[in-house]
Amino acid sequence: MQHKVLFLCTGNSCRSQMAEALINARLGATWQAFSAGTKPTGYVHPKALRALAEIGITHTGRSKLADEFRDLNFDLVITVCDAAAEDCPLWLGQGKRMHHSFPDPAATDNMDAFRTVRDALEKELTALLQAYAEEL
After folding, report:
1. Is 88 known to be catalytic?
2. What pLDDT is attached to residue 99?
3. Is 116 in a helix, a strand, or coil?
4. Is pLDDT above 90 for 26?
5. Domain locations in the chain?
6. So what's the pLDDT on residue 83?
């Protein structure tokens, strides 16, 4: 059985995009991941794409508004930035809400920051979703 997870961030250009790509690549047999933003930037940050490519993941996502997913049934909705967590009382769709904050690599625009966040997303979200799937 495949579960659905939505990663929410403010701009949907870095963290939530990387989370979507990582989970689809690493846990695609169990989880189908989506990402969206409360105030999407309209683009996926090139350094986020580069950080994913460095570990063999090609991501072709686009920056999306959270409203696109209101009618989908999610098992989990995970905010990955503090601003999105504060904005998410507006999330009225289905799915258990969780918050797991990661620093914004675009704030420094340093490639090492993108790698650090990518690795943290992969380690922490993979473990969280594997554990949660066992409970479902």
Report:
1. yes
2. 86
3. helix
4. yes
5. 3-135
6. 62
Determine which one of 5, 8, 9, 27 is catalytic. Answer: 9
Contact 50, 21 (CB under 8 A): no
Tokens of 50: 């580069």
- Beta-bridge mates of residue 76: 5, 96
Q: Which two tokens mark 70?
A: 């209101």
Q: Determine the longest span between alpha carbons in the chain, in angstroms.
A: 39
pLDDT of residue 89: 45
9 an active-site residue?
yes
pLDDT bucket at 52, cuts 50 / 70 / 90: very high
The type of residue at 68 is: E
Catalytic residue among 88, 120, 128, 133: 88
pTM: 0.92
Q: Report, at the CATH architecture level, how domain 3-135 is classified.
A: 3-Layer(aba) Sandwich (3.40)
Q: Which of 18, 23, 27, 81 is catalytic?
A: 81
